[in-house]
Amino acid sequence: MTPAGSHDFAVSERRTVYEGAILALRVDKVQMPGGRVAEREVVEHYGAVAILARDEQGRIAMVRQYRHPIGRRLLELPAGLLDQGDTEDPLTAAQRELAEETDLAADSWRVLVDLDLSPGFTDEALRLYLAEDLRHLDAAERTDEEADMSVEWIAFDEAVAKVLAGEIVNATSVAGILAAAAADRSTTALRSVDAPWPDEPTALRRRRRP
User: Fold this and answer.
1) How far apart (Å, rounded) are the C-alpha atoms in residues 49 and 44?
2) Consecutive H or E run containing 50
3) Helix axes 156-164, 171-184, angle to 10 degrees
4) What percent of the chain has pLDDT over 90?
5) Which portions of the sequence form the region Disordered (predicted)?
6) Closest by alpha carbon to 202, among 44, 10, 11?
7) Would you call 188 exposed, middle or buried from its count of C-beta atoms within 10 A (0-12, 13-18, 19+)?
8) What is the pLDDT of residues 143-201, one digit of tens each?
């Protein structure tokens, strides 16, 4: 057996079990240490972007949106899928989502944090941006759940308190708010928008290419 931390988890076979609108499920046969071959289910996902948009008063723009799997409305940071193929990079997607969900644009963009959301079974990853120097745009047209979505401006300290009180539970929003709080107290500079994103999902986008 190879030393711990050096095994090559080679994939000998892949098969697609399900393919839907926003995800696909495949089963990989993976070589385990010691020679055993194990099946691993992998949910392929487009990946996503989210935005912590903060104004000059220190408030952040959040949306209250109905989430059907949970069965209730959640208070969240604006976010959206990387589902436009190769025509849209993550920053452009974030700018589009901020405009579509909050009627805002920003002149200052930095990478706040990158998240692998549940790497035990999915390749879904998300890049979360800090957007500042905000500008208001004309109201966007919204459909489906987004037609019912409301925008709320939350004082930053209040947002942190809502996370700790269990009132903000969306994982992306929790991570973004707490990361911004840590960044405000850190001497480490935030990354530029062209910083590498090693775990950006590509499998589902490759699958959907013509």
Assistant:
1) 16
2) strand 48-53
3) 130
4) 87
5) 189-210
6) 44
7) exposed
8) 887 788 999 999 999 999 999 999 999 999 999 999 999 999 999 999 999 999 999 99
- Phi, psi at 69, each rounded to 5°: -60, -30
Q: Please, what sign has the CA dihedral across residues 109, 113, 119, 121? A: negative
- Indicate the SS3 state at residue 195: coil
Q: Report the candidate in 45, 52, 122 with the shortest Cα–Cα distance to residue 83.
A: 45
Query: Does the CA dihedral 100-145-122-115 come out positive or negative?
Result: positive
Quick one: pLDDT at residue 1? Answer: 64
Question: Do residues 50 and 172 touch, judged by C-beta distance below 8 A?
Answer: yes
Could you give the residue numbers annotated as active site?
Answer: 146
Question: Residue 29: CB partners within 8 Å, gap ≥ 6?
Answer: 11, 12, 13, 14, 37, 38, 39
Task: Tell me, yes or no, if the pTM score tops 0.85.
Answer: yes
